[in-house]
Amino acid sequence: MPVVPAEPLPPIQSRFLFVDVAALRAKQLRRGARVRIDDIEHLPKKAERVAMEEVRRGLVYYNVLDPRLARAECES
Questions:
Q1: Most CB atoms within 10 A, among 4, 21, 57, 67?
Q2: pLDDT tens track for 21-34
Q3: Predicted TM-score (pTM) of this structure
Q4: How far is CA 3 from CA 7, 41, 55, in A?
């Protein structure tokens, strides 16, 4: 079961991070993950559009690694 943060994540300001998070979520949806949007009537049909809407609404949880830590892991 995924860990849900106690406080909501801040909105994504970087369009590059938005695209990365939405792409990973779309991949999950294509593999059979459940949609997190309650409004079924206005739900887009494509997984990519659903994923982007979920990210916009703050329904997708993500982690951003510190670049220094990621670099240290790659070097070891």
A1: 21
A2: 999 999 999 999 99
A3: 0.73
A4: 12, 29, 17
